[in-house]
Amino acid sequence: MIAQVTRLVAACLVLSVACASTRAQDAPEAAPANPAATPPAATEADEPSVIAARVGGDKSQTRIVFDLSSKIDVRAFALADPYRLVIDLPQVRFQLPPQAGDTGKGLVKAFRFGLMKKGGSRIVLDLTAPVRLDKSFVLDPADGQPARLVLDLTAIDRPAFLREVAFDNRPRTDLGPAAKPANDGAGATNDSRPVIVLDPGHGGIDEGAHAATGEAEKNVALDFALMLRDKLAQSGKYRVEMTRSDDTFIALTDRVQFARAHRAQLFISLHCDALARGEGDAQGATVYTLSDHASDAEAARLAEAENRADIIAGVDLSSEPNEIADILIDLAQRETRSFTTHFARALVGDLKNAIRLHKQPLRSAGFRVLKAPDVPSVLIELGFVSNRADFKELMSETWRTRAADSITHAVNDYFSRRMAGGAGAVGRE
Ligand SMILES: [Zn+2]
């Protein structure tokens, strides 16, 4: 009913990079290769690796070079607001040092990299200004040098940048991170059990929040979701589907679409929160529901952080017309909202006996991932990875088991009431 909104402020600026067979002798090489990078082992030669990265230049012209274990084809496109250059590659292994990309130089502020979907990786450059991609080429290995991907950026003004971006504004079905599972619909099955969609937050290039140890939210969320899936599936009462079950990036709207395509009767997104240093300390789990008005400033801050997933990975949904977002919320039928609220309250009631909750454990804000109008949806922030005690628990098998058992109990309760009495049985808002 609602068209999938994938129109992007994106343009395939150039290239399926024609592999230049000549060395760009005239172009100055950037900074020296990173000595920390290790060349790939011969046994892994079949999967290409990115083994080093370096940035050189200034605010008018910048070159970024990636050393590769073998030649690959890449494609690049630019995005506005914030200015980014997205480089899509075949699936590669990134053998870069942990701090790689944290800081850049010249027109490149920083960069991120990771798996987008099976068979495809991505690098996203955060830019300090609008740029034109002047040249991009892949060099053959030669003279003891590895293969190299070279991108030359030149600063241009914003109108020129937007013209270039708008030049090719087709829906990019080939480039989009449409990390949708192969079995996208639920129609093919005779299974009449209710479908629960579990949605581990973030993934791939989008790591989410980080603990002081460096542990990424995407991994904590996935590990927990896998445990919860097993517990829910054990009863045999539900069909449990996961928006992702590995370290893959999935756009927020694709998660929503996934739930709708499976006619999910419950959608549970799993995350962990973090406060930046200096923002104080907070702990405990929180259950969030969708609202166009955030219940408080912290909820608004969090929704903004969680909604950044698509910006991080280079999928720009800012072109999604606001009217559509509004319609999505308006379409949220009273019944869906009522089911959602009922489940969220019951969940908090169960969780408070099992794990530590935040002092305001039930809140709401404008989370994109909760916007399916016909699927009761909640987002659970399991705890704060920035809080030492919370983090210890999030990493503990015992704590996870207790939390997953408690959620399973709330789910069972919710469905048994729904089955028994329909909408009336779960109260009205
Ligand atoms: Zn998150």
Tell me what you see in this structure.
The protein has 429 residues and is of the alpha/beta class. The protein folds into two domains: 10-167, Immunoglobulin-like (Sandwich), CATH 2.60.40.3500; 195-426, Zn-dependent exopeptidases (Aminopeptidase, 3-Layer(aba) Sandwich), CATH 3.40.630. 27% of the residues lie in helices and 26% in strands. It has helices at residues 158-167, 217-234, 252-261, 297-307, 309-313, 322-331, 334-351, 388-394, 397-421; strands at 10-11, 49-57, 61-68, 75-79, 84-90, 93-94, 108-117, 120-127, 131-139, 147-155, 195-200, 239-242, 266-273, 285-290, 357-365, 377-384. It has a six-stranded mixed β-sheet, with helices on both faces. A five-stranded antiparallel β-sheet has the order 1-4-5-8-7. The structure holds zinc ion (ZN). The site of zinc ion has 6 residues, from loops.
Features:
429 residues, alpha/beta, Aminopeptidase, six-stranded mixed sheet, 9 helices, 16 strands, elongated, disordered N terminus, binds zinc ion
Summed up:
With 429 residues, the chain is of the alpha/beta class.
Assigned CATH superfamily of the largest domain: Zn-dependent exopeptidases
Question: How many structural units, i.e. domains?
Answer: 2
- Alpha-carbon distance between the two ends: 26 Å
Output mean pLDDT.
Answer: 81
Spans of at least 5 consecutive residues whose pLDDT stays below 50 are: 1-44, 168-187, 317-325, 423-429
Query: How are strands sequenced across the largest beta sheet?
Result: 12-11-13-16-14-15
Task: Draw up the topology in text.
Elements (H helix, E strand, L loop, with lengths): L9 E2 L37 E9 L3 E8 L6 E5 L4 E7 L2 E2 L13 E10 L2 E8 L3 E9 L7 E9 L2 H10 L27 E6 L16 H18 L4 E4 L9 H10 L4 E8 L11 E6 L6 H11 L1 H5 L8 H10 L2 H18 L5 E9 L11 E8 L3 H7 L2 H25 L8
Parallel strand pairs: 2-6, 11-12, 11-13, 13-16, 14-15
Antiparallel strand pairs: 1-4, 2-3, 3-10, 4-5, 5-8, 7-8, 9-10, 14-16
Helix pairs in contact: 2-9, 7-9
